[in-house]
Amino acid sequence: MDPTKTTNYLIHFLEERGTSDYIGESITQLEHSLQCANFALTSGASEPTILAALLHDIGQFLPLDAAKDMQIGISGKSVGRVGHEAIGEQYLRSLGFGEKVCKLVGSHVAAKRYLTAVDEGYYDALSEASKLSLRFQGGPFQGEELESFRRDPLREEMVRLRKWDDEAKVVGIVEHTPRAAVYRGMMQRHLEDQRIC
After folding, report:
1. What pLDDT, on a 0 to 100 scale, did the predictor assign at position 61?
2. What's the pLDDT score for residue 170?
3. At what angle do helices 155-167 and 47-55 cross, to 10 degrees?
4. Predicted pLDDT of residue 76
5. N or C: less crowded end of the chain, CB within 10 Å?
6. Do 88 and 106 contact (CB within 8 A), yes or no?
7. What is the largest CA-CA distance in the chain?
8. What pLDDT score does 64 carry?
9. CA separation (Å) from 177 to 42, 59, 197?
């Protein structure tokens, strides 16, 4: 797919599909994604990390057939799509995004499992929706899963993205958060660079 077309499609997709509720939270999926990307941008993160922050939850609201679209639910309340991180990672790979973007998107649930294993206070600070979904995501890492995550060269960036994800749930700051179109040039550059590699 052409980088310009892919970029235009994704920006439009985020703005159109992201207006739905962000499961169990008080903001939309779009506002959550934009807040997360803005945290990455203002922290001076690399462009692939900023794009991963923007797109980390795309697997939550991609249209999928009913058989695959299983929701994690408790007492009739959805707290997310099963495997949304892997769905998002695979989708972005299919569009031509680079390894770092895809791996960061695919690891944001693993980073939550890691942090709940190594930081006692981290679990307590999670939103109720995040605590509920953790149960269905395998709970805190143990044993080899924990050691494998510790050894990953991208561990620090995975953890940073996860923390931005956790913080990006602030109500009432729409007018202070850059819109998706701000990332258009960055996204197109990234996709063009992947075609050259």
Report:
1. 79
2. 86
3. 40
4. 45
5. C
6. yes
7. 49
8. 66
9. 11, 22, 33
Regions of the chain where pLDDT drops below 70: 18-25, 64-82, 197
Contacts of 78 (CB under 8 A, 6+ apart): 23, 24, 71, 72
**Sequence letter at residue 69:** D
What are the structure tokens assigned to 54, written together?
Answer: 């923007």
Polymer length of the chain: 197
Distance in angstroms (rounded) separating the CA atoms of residues 141 and 195: 36
Dihedral, 1, 36, 65, 87 alpha carbons, nearest 10 = 70
Half-sphere exposure of 57 (CA within 13 A, CB side): 28
Residue 42: C-alpha distances to residues 143, 190, 192 (Å): 35, 19, 24
Q: Which domains does the chain have, with CATH numbers?
A: 3-63+73-194 (1.10.3210.10)
Dihedral Cα 89, 181, 8, 95, nearest 10 deg:
-20
Is this prediction's pTM over 0.85? Answer: yes
Name which of 42, 44, 47, 80 is nearest 62 in CA terms.
80
99-110 CB burial, b ≥16 within 10 A, e <16: ebbbbbbbbbbb
